[in-house]
Amino acid sequence: MQILGRAQAVGKHLIPYVPWTPTVRSMSIPVPSPSCFLVEWYPPDLTEELLDHTAATLERCAASMSAEGSPVQLLMTLAVPTDEVVFGVFAACSARIVAEACQRAGIPAQRLSVARTARVGCRETPDSAPSLTP
Q1: pTM higher than 0.70, yes or no?
Q2: Radius of gyration of the chain (CA)
Q3: How many Å apart are CA 99 and CA 74, to the nearest integer?
């Protein structure tokens, strides 16, 4: 229908298209995911009793710090007595938290590195596992 040479729009106007943008945001504080850290100590005269005491002390300090809001967990310890070295693998959000746990335990880390992966145990059957020998 034309009125005086113009087209007349009948009905409702179309809703204009507006690109979608999120209107809802998270209300929580983002928590960084934990990483693995390798800690090294070089104690002389390493004994099994010393290793047991060290692991127990580290676990107590890690539990205490986690309760205070700085999550840290001792995943494992490994001693190599012939090389006079003890390794500890920790899960935490930062190296600073791991260093503080070690400091509180009275055994400051002598070396602390970010570990890419930490696996304990074998996920493959002995027949399917790759061989280290040629």
Answers
A1: no
A2: 29
A3: 12
